[in-house]
Design a protein that fits this description.
By secondary structure, the chain is an alpha+beta fold. The chain contains eight helices and 19 strands.
Length: 277
């Protein structure tokens, strides 16, 4: 299943070129539970809710896929866990270099990226994102993928400078997730999933998951040593070569094989935009 949030906090199931608005089927999950508190109750209860969602698709209002404004498919991630330098030649060697980003940095593709520090380099990093589906702690790599609800595309945005890495990557809008959550069963376990990013039609990043130094299962297992992972936790798995700077007015298009594609616009700081009027 491909499950997303759009518009005014509505829930849609993507089938072909259409989005089925199944929000009404979630009356058993109140909005405060899944959209305004830490953790994602929709993801936590997905297996229980899945039959309702599938049945609702048959009669739900249907929207053209191209008309939908996507929000982050994860409403309130308890944590955003990222990894440094996870792509490239050579053996993995050592443990993954994990760090945290603020959950408040998460947005959907329709919300765009605001460059809040004019004159300072701000870079794009496209990544495959794993989303935790159930509580798990200290899991082994062999069973780590069983903890996942699914996957989505992510853009890890980075302000360059001397501040702490987590701070420079935690500005509002600096973790873009979308366009929807592809459930683990639908995504499958592909050892080589292609990843691409273009800016203004120019390809900047391309690679595939076989180039990861630490695979998804290893990252999940390693993170679970430090945290009891919770439904909605987001694990960003690293970016291929080609990281580059963004400018106001840029248009980003990125895609990951089997997970879809998303478009994200880059804008100037709001205060600067007001000054220009």
């Amino acid at each position: 299943m491909r499950l997303g949030r759009f518009g005014d906090d509505r829930i849609g199931v993507v089938r072909g070129a259409f989005v089925h608005d199944v929000t009404a089927a979630l009356e058993v999950v109140s909005p405060p539970a899944y959209a305004r508190s830490s953790g994602d109750a929709l993801i936590a209860g997905f297996e229980r809710l899945r039959p309702r969602l599938e049945a609702a698709c048959e009669s739900a209002p249907r929207l053209d896929l191209a008309s939908v404004q996507w929000l982050s498919p994860v409403a309130n991630p308890p944590r955003v866990i990222a990894v440094r330098t996870n792509f490239g030649p050579g053996a993995s060697g050592g443990d993954p270099d994990l760090f945290l980003k603020a959950p408040s940095s998460v947005v959907g593709p329709s919300e765009g990226i605001e460059l809040r520090f004019p004159g300072r380099q701000t870079d794009h990093e496209v990544e495959l994102v794993a989303v935790v589906g159930r509580e798990c702690g200290t899991v082994e790599p062999a069973s780590a993928l069983d903890c996942l609800a699914g996957y989505c595309i992510g853009i890890d945005v980075t302000l360059r400078g001397g501040e702490d890495r987590g701070l420079r990557k935690s500005l509002d809008g600096f973790t873009v997730l979308g366009p929807w959550l592809t459930t683990a069963d639908e995504a499958g376990e592909s050892p080589r999933r292609r990843i691409e990013l273009e800016v203004n039609g120019e390809r900047r990043q391309q690679g595939d998951t076989s180039q990861m130094r630490h695979g998804i299962a290893e990252l999940v297992a390693f993170a679970s040593r430090y945290f009891t992972l919770r439904p909605g936790d987001v694990i960003m798995t690293g970016t291929p070569a080609g990281v580059g700077p963004l400018e106001p007015g840029d248009a980003i298009d990125c895609r990951i094989e089997g997970l879809g594609e998303m478009h994200v616009d880059v804008r100037a700081p709001r205060a600067a935009a007001r000054d220009q009027r």
